[in-house]
Amino acid sequence: MQIIKNESIDQIKTRIRQQTSKTIDPIVASRVENIIATVREKGDAALKAYAQEFDGVTLNELKVSAAQIDLAVKNVAPEVIKALEKAAANIRSFHQLEIQQAFEDSPRPGVIRGTKITPLSAVGIYVPGGTAAYPSSVLMNALPAKIAGVQHIIMVTPPQKEGLNDAVLAAARIAGIDSIYQVGGAQAIAALAYGTESIPQVDKITGPGNAYVATAKRAVYGQVAIDMIAGPSEIGILADDSARAKDIAADLLSQAEHDKNARAILITNSEKLAQAVSDEVNVQLKTLPREDIARDAIDNNGFIYLVETIDDMIDLMNAVAPEHLEIQLENAYDYIDKIQNAGSVFLGKYASEPLGDYLAGPNHILPTGGTARFSSALGVWDFQKRIQYLSYSQDALLDDADDVTVLAREEGLAGHARAIEVRQS
Ligand SMILES: NC(=O)c1ccc[n+]([C@@H]2O[C@H](COP(=O)([O-])OP(=O)(O)OC[C@H]3O[C@@H](n4cnc5c(N)ncnc54)[C@H](O)[C@@H]3O)[C@@H](O)[C@H]2O)c1
Ligand SMILES: N[C@H](CO)Cc1c[nH]c[nH+]1
Ligand SMILES: [Zn+2]
């Protein structure tokens, strides 16, 4: 990993901004635009042609049958089912806490103001599956939607040469999802946004994916809602001399192995640790089955920044706004208040990132590419809408009428004023 030292904080921030802006690739954007237009024009036929082109799969049916799901569940090892069920229980118990509450008040007699909460009606959940299968992403996507009360949950995931991954289908069964379509990439996002002969149009698309998926979600926003830009995985680690190079290297590589575009960043005030982590990453890389992917990620987007103080470290990490942030400093828990930008934070040397990926309960669908500056983890809130309402008695209207008409005339909107005035007599 490249060690960057002897640079000012401003110089490093400029580098970070440049690296973050790399996440929008114009070549990918133009391919995605083309795919979306083709799906809109040709529907299912385009989805089947792309399955052939990008996934090498000939599909007759896009929809997965109940019998296929039954069979898959039987094929999954009992210890995997047990772990998925434990994960599901933790994800449910954590996300139950996110349910938004309706509220109502009456500021004076005759006036009632409130906000009611309704679930979205139809959502599309994207479960990645290009270079790995993600049963964990089924649970992370579907369970918050279920808790919110969404009626129609449509799951899409890329077709596989050897048939869809059994554990992905088993996770869907555990989450109570039975509407599953074999379609991935930008074409899946286009199908959910515009609908095809077999895939229903939805109100919102959630879930993570590679650069094609993330770029397509950005492109269809407005036609449908999206949760966030949850693209190639990232990890940022803040560590001092109290941390172990072995742990840090392993955690950096845990995210690098997801995608050649993944990002892995260490910020430290210890030169000794910086060098030890750089060496250890090289050693551990060679032992990973996905070495080629992880190596590309480390070569392209793996950086160690060496700075003077812990305050500088935190300041820079807030500029990175990583998807996952690990704090491996002494008394790590004390630093949570200083973190402004991160998708999810892991405090202390035992809170290793994969705990969050799989089991602990917080969501692993998280903003990437610096978008944690303004986006949050996927949650029940993503599947709920708020509708405000108002009720007025005649007396209450008469009390407020003059002030409303004054403001309406100030804006030159006599029609607004009249709607109030006709009720004054
Ligand atoms: N941010 C998060 O919350 C989060 C969570 C889990 C996973 N992830 C990320 O999800 C991603 C999963 O990626 P993946 O590739 O394994 O699966 P994926 O399902 O995201 O993408 C696979 C699809 O990409 C399309 N594709 C691939 N190459 C293409 C090309 N040249 N042109 C057009 N389309 C192409 C194909 O349709 C293929 O089916 C990784 O980047 C991982 O880091 C992110
Ligand atoms: N780290 C990923 C989010 O960036 C989530 C994941 C799923 N499986 C393993 N990891
Ligand atoms: Zn992961």
UniProtKB/TrEMBL annotation:
Pathway linked to the protein: Amino-acid biosynthesis; L-histidine biosynthesis; L-histidine from 5-phospho-alpha-D-ribose 1-diphosphate: step 9/9
Cross-referenced InterPro entries: Ald_DH/histidinol_DH, Histidinol_DH_CS, Histidinol_DH_monofunct, Hstdl_DH
Q: What is the UniProt remark on how the cofactor binds and its stoichiometry?
A: Binds 1 zinc ion per subunit.
What residues bind Zn(2+), as annotated?
Q255, H258, D357, H416
Q: Which residues bind NAD(+)?
A: Y126, Q187, N210
In Pfam terms, one family for this protein is: Histidinol_dh
What is the name listed in the Swiss-Prot or TrEMBL entry for this protein?
A: Histidinol dehydrogenase
